Structure formats: C-alpha cells, structure tokens
Fold this sequence. Notes:
Number of strands: 0
Largest sheet: none
Strand content: under 5%
Shape: globular
CATH class of the largest domain: Mainly Alpha
Amino acid sequence: MKNLLVGAAPLAAAQQFRPHVLPDTLLAFAVFTLAAAGTYLVNDVRDLQGDRRHPVKQHRPIARGDVSPRLAISAAVLLLVGAVALPLLTGHGQLAACMATYVVLMQAYSLGLKDEPVVDLAIVASGFLLRAMAGGLAAELPLSRWFLMVSAFGSLFMVAGKRYSELVSLGSRAGEVRTSLSAYSPTYLRFVWAMSAGVLLTAYSLWAFEVAAAMSDRASAPWSAISVAPFVLAVLRYALDVDRGEAAEPEDIVLHDRGLQVIAVLWLLTFGLGAAGV
C-alpha cells in the first residue's frame, strides 16, 4: 500500500497516462516493493525479541519462528541489491540513486538509529518522501518545491501519528516494544503531528491557489483551489483516527475507514481535474 505513493509525482504533473511515464512508474513501484520487503526482513530480525512481546507483531513469520533469521537476512540481501541494480540496468540512474539512498537510510535505521528519538521520526518520514519522489525521478519529471513540501510534511504527519497511536495502544509496554517510544510523550507527538499538519495544509493550499490562478484563463473552474476542501477534510479525518490511537499502521486506515475513502475519491477527482487544467 505504501508503495502506491510512487504515483504521486506523475499524478501531480498530470502525466500518469503518457506512454513512457506509466512503465517508469511501474518500475519504481516494483523496485520499492523489493527494497521495502528486504528492509522489513532486516527490521524484523533486529526487532525479534520486541515483536514477540507485541500483541500484533508477535504473529509475524520471523517472530513466530516460521522463518529463520539466517534465511530472512539472505533473502533481504538479494532483495536490496536487486532494488538498486534493476533501475541501474534499465538506465534509470536517478531512480537507482533514490533507491540506494532509501536502502542506506533504512539499514541505518534498522541497525540502531531507530532507537534515537526524533531521528527515527525523520528517517521513517524520509521513506515516505522517497516513495513520493521515486515516480517522478523514474520518469524524469520535475519535482516542484510545493510537491516536495507537501510530501515531506505529509510524511512527518503520518509518522508522528503512527508513533502516537503506538504509544497509546501499547501503554506502559511501549518502551519495551520500541525503545524510542520511551522518550516520547503523547503531548510531544501531538505537537509534531499538529505542526506537520499545519505546514502540510499551508503548502498544499499555496500550491493549489497558484495552479488555479495560472490556469484561470483556460480552465472551466478553479478545480485546484476547490481541491483544498476535500484535502483539509481528509487530513482532519485521518487526524481523528490518530487521536483514537488507530493509526499505528497507516495502510489499515486507508483500507478500513470508509469516510476517508469517500473524501479521498472527491479529492482525487478535483485534484485530477485541476492538474489536467480542465
């Protein structure tokens, strides 16, 4: 689910259906799937003891004992090397650099930085940001400053919400399951989450009104500006799930919150019309 973010840049540029863009985006999705799988294997081996104390993660194959750590690491090495080698072999140098950056950051996270407060938030958020950039880099589409700001602070908003939900749901056991959680308080994570949401909404609104103004002479309606409304509602709806402590896995919210899904469809419709200049 997270890897669908590779379509963000082509969608923002309204280029997703151009002949060369779709194959390049699918390549970005494929290599991020390899890299994410390899990263999860390394992370699950490193978190083996903590996962066995977690009410949900204890059922993962490595924590449950179905897959040996040695087999997991061997598979992870193949997947991570493939994630960087595949774009190199197909002539996508920028995508290969993006994947190498992701692999290095995620392995540094798994091998120790995950226990460092604030740093862990930044690295996990960078994983979402690199996904959002990957589709544009693969298809050699320009990434605007607004796109990067929305992606960066949207990523931080999701990660702070994820940590807040973990802290709430795990309670006194939070520090045992994830070391960095012992350094956070609900108040601090709410601050990061609220600050990120504020910058996210501001950056998106500035971009939307800029695009609407630029297309006012040829668009039938200011769709980009109109898209601000469902975007704000989507952030507020997601924040409600975070406040309930239900955002430990962002993809679960996307799959199960029907209200958020309806809002997301409305946003995609207005956003798409605005990006296309209809």
